[in-house]
Amino acid sequence: MAGIIGLYGYDTAWKMARFIYYGLMALQHRGQESCGISTYDGERLLRECRAGMVDQAFGEAELEALRGWIGIGQVDPEPPNGGPPAKPSFAKCPLGLALACDGSAARALKAARERGLSAGDPQGALAALLSRELANGDPFEAIERIAGELGGACNFIALTERGEMIAYRGELGIKPMVIGNFGFDYGAVASESCALDVIGAELKADLSPGEAYLFTPWSIERRKVREARPRYCAFEYVYLARPDSIINGKSVYEVRMRIGEKLASESDVEGADSVLAVPETAIPFAMAFSNATGKPIGMGFVQTGRRVRSAIRPTQFERLVGVQLKLNPIRAAMAGKRVVLIDDSVVRGTTTKNTVKVMRNRMGAKEVHVRIGSPRIISQCPFGIEVPDRDELIAAHLSEEEVGKVVEADTFHWLSLEGLIEAIGLPRGSLCLGCFTGEYPEAL
Q1: Pairing outcome for strands 165-168 and 211-215
Q2: What angle do CA 173, 116, 444 make, to 5 degrees?
């Protein structure tokens, strides 16, 4: 998973790096290990890639040095692989370009090597392939040839030394991608609509699966280059996307409220004193659960420091420590009470168990009933979402009752798969539910 954004200013007065910076901050939840910005100043491509959070990585000096009215950016959840950060990826010849990518570009590495191109990672391979294809012909034909190599599960935004910006959404549409007005023209593309909101752009539409846009100094063109086979990621609505985003025509916030309602109808807790959410993804779940059952909602935890998504930290130690550091329980909200604890997902079960133990043993909760706003996660994701191996997934091996005992909850319930599909409100056949079922669209 990554967060990507591209902005085309259509006026040399724009200083696009600053807008990219704020757009990346809005996408920070999609990657917190490294970030990068590339701009075009009319003569050449400029690029700056750094480790860490966006606001720590880029200061005034870096933004001023990134001149130009066209730009792309990327936040990434993977730490640099033995070297300095290098995303967006860069290709120097035959056509200079920078490329931001979200999704699985695994096939690009094999394709690049078959063509004798050097590339150390899939995204770099995709940049090399795209550079060669764009240098040799029509941009849309080049995108079509590249898209045929990728398998349908990859979105990208590229910026060339000719002053072009290209945006493409894979034909499966697994990862979200939206387009909006920036000024008077369709000049803003991003992983989620929240990035457009932050920079003052207006959301217009989702890119259709298999659709490409070409931005040049003289025109904006779009074309379907691959037949759409939509399989939108269901986990985007549960956890990955921000609640203020609209993806695939659906408000993430409204979907999460419906998830809370489904949880209430499937597994209410009689006699519970309060409903508490593990911040912050599960807050809409808990609000809707409270509304549906009439049980008061409370504030069970306070966040410490900056908002860090511990679930996408690279090691289990960092994930566990991250949860302990960022969430401090409020004793008065749970001491002596029967509590319904609502969270967005359970992967290994370690952090859930730790949270329940703290609530019960340190904070004095009388009962803790855990309700999870996603179905059982039983399979690793091949499309770039950080899900551990099946051996580490608690739901792949234990029943609901057994998991409840492991995490020391009085009762435990996962949202049903049918409940999630109804909450999202899209046809089952248009969703990728692979992490819950083990059945994925054929893309890799």
Answers
A1: antiparallel
A2: 25
